[in-house]
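Researcher: We're teaching a course module on how sequence relates to structure. For the next exercise, students receive a sequence and then see the predicted structure as tokens, so they can try to spot secondary structure elements on their own. Here is the exercise chain.
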Amino acid sequence: MSPMSDLEDRRPPLSPQLALRVAVLGGVALALFAIIFFRLWFLQVLSGDEYLVQARENRTRDVRIQAPRGEILDRNNKVLVANRYSNVVQLEPQQLPEQTLEDAAEWGQKAGERQRRPKGKRGAPVPYPPIATPELERLYRRLGNLLGMRPETIHKRVIQKLAQLPYSAVPIRNDVPNSIRGYIRERQEQFPGVSVERVYLRQYPRDHLAAQLLGYVGEISPDELKQRRNRGVKQGTIIGKAGLEYQYDRYLRGRDGAKVLKVDANGRFVSDEPVAEREPIPGRQLRLSLDLDLQASGQEALRQIGGGLPGAFVAMNPRNGQIYAMGSYPSFDPEELFVKPISQERFNALTSESVGAPLVNRAVSGTYASGSVFKPISALAGLDKGVITPEQVQNDPGCIDIGNPPVEKCNAKKTPYGAVDLRRSLTVSSDVYYYRVGLWLYSAGGQVLQKWAKKLGLGRSTGIDLPEERRGLIPGPEWRAEMNAKERKCRKTNKGRPCYVLDIRDYNPGDNANLAVGQGEVQISPLQIATAYSAIATGGRVPRPHLGMEILDRNGRLVQTIDPGSSRKVKIEKSWQDAIMDGLRGAASSDGGTSAAVFAGWPHDRLPVYGKTGTAETHVEGVAYDQSWYAAYVPHKAKPIVVVATVERGGFGAEKAAPIVRRILAKHFDLGEKLARPAADTSIRQAAD
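Model: And here is the predicted structure for the students to work with:
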């Protein structure tokens, strides 16, 4: 080989920089191959069993088996809410055309997008797709003829349900008779995909009794699924919607079971035989403090004595806050209205005052001017501030002038009571006495009247285990300033016209005088009055009202005692309490007492009544009415009780509310029918407040 050939075969030497680059690239390639190798090893060796399970699950679907809800019992284990079996006609989604499933998914997506838009900008409702096939339309028609439903109604129900739960059976009608169940089963070839299953429905065997307390149930909505309290709850689950059914839903609901059914690659069921089955766990029972017999007696008294007017009552143990009975009129039958689906229009009508708003629990959600039942609170505020003493005597001429220019304020029927001290002011219910207390407290400053009202539970949540409670209102300077600001802001966009039917002004002495007699803008519920009177009766212990006492298992064994929370303590001097209680006792038993005629013949020696009438001026559609109130306390070693009743447009407190309370007290102490009724109605109608 020539020297020239040797020169041509030579290669340039590998520089250190190039060697480094080659080494780095080789290392990166090795690392990548190592990552891929270890990932494959992890997937095939370590996670193989897990993915095998998931692959198997892709071939199955869980079909929910409903768990029965727990029963609700009264304090004596009498059943208030139970369950019953019901035949439900339903359509199996695997038997429906593929186009129907696609249509439902598309409709659900569009309906969801519309729902997420702000109100007023949602546009027209999303139209329902047409029925997919002639065969399906014929099935709907046959089924509609059997169930008394239009095919279009069935189709809408199918689309709505499939949009929420694509793999669950679509319920078409509840509570069908066994004859229809048998007819469909005998002619299954005419009703492909139609089945009749037996499910649990809520049963309210006491009809209207305690309806607003118990509440009702329904299928969970998309908005409710987002709530924290429903975390882990699946679509299609029946949950509590109102009242105790809502408050104690997590105990009552139980845990649904499931049937595991095989599906093909398209998600269609290939067999009705389950691969596996998980049994449902029934809900737990809830025992209440309610006394069923007292509840029935109270509701009947409210309906009968109230003369069909709206009203409410509360009967409570003042020591521990246990609710013995609580009622509101008019009422409703939960089983009649809510066991089957109810339209939004029908639901809205049931909350309208034009039909009496039967869904509203007036005992906790009804807030009103309280009239003279507020006076013991005013007395405590006056005693605390030192503007009155128990023995101080005032002259009551029947009327006084308040404000500048002066406005005449009078007792009921302008009755003059002459010389009255604190005790006498409560016995005869002197408005003049408490107008002065309100004026003096305003001059003293510090909003003592408002502070005492709130300390005793007025204008604030009592903490009762019901979701519908309203706070109410105790008006004062801050509230008035806030309303003035809202009014000014609103008038700017309302062409200067009033918005809240309130004049723009400061809180003044006349407002405080009105508050001292439970009038003006004050808004108080019957339950709040019961809480305040309980605090006075017990010397300052403000109880936390509650209905739930115990959680039991399905066999009635105690699982958990419900702790309502501790009571609050308010300092009430013994001399103050004695003076107020003497005045209240005189009102129910002494000559001139505003409710003495109602409680004539009552065994005051062994069951003394400490009672207070109230007559609050209210307005309905611009017309003034008198609202009847009565609050009473009866001490007893084993069964102490506070009862409060109110009747809208019921007149003086002694006319309707006081006789209702007497009826409830007589039932509570088993005094019989004779002592349940006042001796003479004529004297009651003549009594002033």
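Model: If you want an answer key for the exercise: Residues 1-5 have pLDDT under 50 and may be disordered. The radius of gyration is 35 Å.
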